[in-house]
Batch of 3 targets.
Target 1
Amino acid sequence: MIHTTLAEAAFRKVCDEIWKPLTDTATERSKTIAANRMHSLTGLFVDAATNANIRGTRWAGYQAVTEYLDHAAPVHGKTTVDKAVNRALRAIDGSVVEVKERAFALLTV
C-alpha cells in the first residue's frame, strides 16, 4: 500500500464506497454531515501532517480513514470527558472496526 499511489479523486471514490453518497431526498442536515465528513477525510489525506511521509499513497488513504474515525469523527457527550470515553469505546466498537476493515479491503485491491 505504501508503494502504490492514490490520487485524491480515487481516494474520494473509496470514501464513497465506504459512506454511500446521499440520495436527492436526503435532508439538509444529512447533506451537511456528509459534506463535512468528506471535507475532513480529504483534508487528512491531502494536508495532514500525520500523512506527510506517505502522502499520495494507498497507505495514506487508509491512515486518513482511520485517523478520521479515531480522532475527528463527531462523538456524542456533554462533557469533554464523556466525549473522550465515547470516542475510546467507539474505537473498539464493531461498527467502526468494520469500516476500517472495509477501507483496508478497498485500498488493497
Target 2
Amino acid sequence: MNPRNSRLVHALWLLIVSAAVVPAQTATKTFAVTRSNLCVTEGEIGDGPNNDLIVDAQKMRAYVNTWTSQSIEAEFTYVGPTAKESALGSGEIRRQFGLKLRAQDACNLVYAMWRIEPESKVVVSVKRNPGQTRSSECGNRGYQNIKPRRASPVPALHPGDRHVLRAEMVHDNLRVFVDNREVWDGSVGSDAEALTGPVGIRSDNARLLLNLRAGVLSGAHPNYALACKSGPDASD
C-alpha cells in the first residue's frame, strides 16, 4: 500500500472510531415542561430560580398533563436527603428519583428510576395490575423489574451533583440515558407497550432542583390539557 492510501485508510479508521464513541442522541423534538404542565398526585413541586422546579417532599408523584411522545428528560441537581424519610409500601426506605412512561393510572405504568441509596443504579420496572386503576386497589403489587439487553453503571450521587436523566420508549423498547450516555436498553414487554398514558416523574426521600423537557407528539392529536387526577387513589 502506498503512503497516500495508507493515510486515507488511517483517516477513515479514525472517523469510524470517533463515530462509535459519540454518545447516542435523540432526534425527538422537545418542549420545556413548566409547573403548569404538571399534575402533582402526591407531594409538592414548587417554582425555583432559573426556571428550576423544586422538590422537597418525602414522596413526589406527578405526570405531564399535556400531549407528549413517550420521551422525557430531567436535568436535575441532587440537593440531598429530605429532613424526614418515608418508607415504601414494602417497608423499605429508598432514596431515588426517576421518570414515568405510559402512566395509564396508579396501577399500570413503566418506571425508569435512578436509585441513589442504598446503591446507585438505574432500575426499570413495570407496574401492571390488569383491571385495577386506583392505588387503594393495587397498593404496591404488580411490580416487575425488567432485565436489560444492555446496561452500564451510573455514578454515585452526592449533594450538589447535577446530571441529565432521559428515557424514551418506542413500541416495547425503552432506552435510558445519563448525561447523554446510554445506561439501559431493553424490551419492557408487550403488556407495557399496550398501556396508554402520559410521561411523568417520581421521587422518594430526595430533595431536587430540576428542569423538565418532554418529547413533542408528532401527528394530529387533541389540543387540550389532560384532566388532572390527583389524590391518594391517583398516586402511584
Target 3
Amino acid sequence: MTDVMRCCRGVVALALGFSALVVAGHNPDERAPAEQAPASIPEVLPRDEEIALAESAAPAHLRAKATVYVLDRSGFVLARQGSNGFTCIVNRDSPLGRKPTCYDREGTATILPKVLRVGELLMRGTPLAAIEREIEDGFRTGRFVAPRRPGIAYMLSKGNRDFSPATGKVRPFPPHVMFYAPNLTNEDIGSLGDGAGGLPFIAYQGSHGFMIMMVPDETANP
C-alpha cells in the first residue's frame, strides 16, 4: 500500500469516526452529566500549560517563532511576540470549550480580533447569546472583517475540546486544518457537511466561515 493510499484511508477513517460521534452523540471520554454543568467563565490554566496547548495547534516548525496569547482573568493577553506571522491561541468560544488554533497573517489580522473580544466577554460572564449578537453586529458594522484572501488556520492539537450548548457536553474534536471560506456553503463545495468520506465541510457558515479538512491521525502533533 502506498503512502498516499494510507493517508487517504486515515483521513476517511478519522472523518467517519467523527461523524459517528456527532450522529450517535456518544464519546467514551465524555464526562458524566453531573460534571458537565456549564461553567460561568472559562478556566484559567497555568501560563506554561496554556502556552504549550496553544503551540500544539501549529506544525512543530512554526511554534518557536509564533506569537502566543494566553487567557487570564480579564481575557486574552500577549504572552510572546513572534516573528513568522503566525499567532497561536487557545480559542474559547464557550466557558468549557478549548480550541488551540494557530492563524496565519491573514487570520491574525482579521479573525484574531474577534477571538480576543469573545475571550474578554466570556471572562466577564457574558451569556453566549449576547456574545453572538455582538459579534454578528461587529461584522455588520465593520468592527470585525472577514478574511480578505485565502489562508489557513492550523488546529493540529490533540487537545481540541468542543462544547455543544445543545447537549451540554464536551467532546474532543480531531486534529484538522481550516481554510478561510467567508459565506461559502456546503452546497457550494458539494459536501455532506459532516466530514463523511473525508470530504471538507463548512463550519461557522457566514462572514467568518471556515472550510475544515481532517488530517490523518499519524500526522497529528504530539
